[in-house]
Amino acid sequence: MAQKPSIPKGTRDFNPEQVAKRHYIFNTVRSAFETFGFQPIETPSFENSGTLMGKYGEEGDRLIFKILNSGDYLSKANSEAYEAKDSNKLTSSISEKALRYDLTVPFARYVVQHQNDIEFPFKRYQIQPVWRADRPQKGRFREFYQCDADVVGSKSLWQEVEFIQLYDTVFSALKLEGVTIKINNRKILSGIAEVIGASDKLIDFTVALDKLDKIGEEKVKEEMRGKGISETGITKLQPLFTLSGSFESQIDSLKSILSSSEDGKKGIEELSFINKAISELGLSTATLQLDVTLARGLNYYTGAIFEVSAPENVQMGSIGGGGRYDDLTGIFGMKDVSGVGISFGLDRIYLVLEELGLFPETVNKNIAVLFINFGEKEALFSLKAINELRLQGINSELYPDAAKMKKQMNHANKRAIPFVVLIGDEEVNSNTYTLKNMVSGEQHKVSLDALITLVK
After folding, report:
1. Where is the Aminoacyl-transfer RNA synthetases class-II family profile domain (predicted)?
2. Mind listing the pLDDT tens digit for each residue in 144-175?
3. What is the side-by-side strand order in the sheet with 97-99?
4. Model pTM?
């Protein structure tokens, strides 16, 4: 019995219409990247395991897809780990490579490896797929594209300002109005951890806090208790869970909460600079919002943290995010190279545009003209005309078989092709073309020049 075809959970096939819509997003994002001065690079789909492991925190490490070594991988397996069924120790002996989890860590590796060829500050963009062994759900896949832009080699906060403008530019171009660009600063989170006496548990604290939108206040507190954060410390956190109001009013509240933390005060200073600049420059359709519970749970952020939310009327997770990392390249031996970057969640943006009906009708570059095939002589005559149409940028094709007229017409209708051309003996002899409008039903006998003009 033949095997029923299937694909792994969390992956998808894309039909021509979906691919066209995805390319519309790609092209919009790419155009904005290049307008802002970013240059494209690409990195391999898989990296050495050592490049990726330990860079995303404990949870991130569990979500990295490991690749088994080629050949008889068990012959080199750690026999002690194998007998003990210790998967962590066993994995390192049977897997030396892994699919990339994001584009930022491979980018850091790229910068260090090619540092002698790069002019700093280096502004790069990258649009490639990444893989995560996550539980598939709406808007969350195991294989998905990221669209990243980063600047390395500059500590200037004007880069953060520019990234907020970049988000606004892209979403405005996609006609996706009403997105919220949430911002926080890792120094503020460090300051809060210091104030509550949990500096040694900063990662546990931020990972738990980052889940506030997903699991709620009580569950976050419960997780913090489980990580050893004291009840006194959790009580001191209470103002954070209810902090609201304008950017400026939240900053004022933070000044009071973090008055004893130098790290916290530095974070407040950086956020105030960014907010003042954006207030002066203005945004087209997006809104900048301070969210002190925003943590993103990643080990490498050291300054600003970004997360973008879809318009309020759409139930969707974040559609973008990023932040400042002051020494990400240090993990590969290149110290004191500051960077900042953002990412666009292509797949979630696609779902949002689809739900709101924001894809342009012209996004599908469909065939404009189908030439009906009546036989060898007529087909050859048609192909000469098709060559001219294609030179004029008109998408056109010949139906490959001299099938019944009804079948060929049905084919044009099913593919929503707006024009068909019929060529018989009379048209060949008079060097004309019968053009039929498939929407109105009208048809006219025309010259090739007239055909080109009417279809255009």
Report:
1. 1-400
2. 999 999 999 999 999 999 999 999 999 999 99
3. 46-48, 97-99, 66-67
4. 0.86
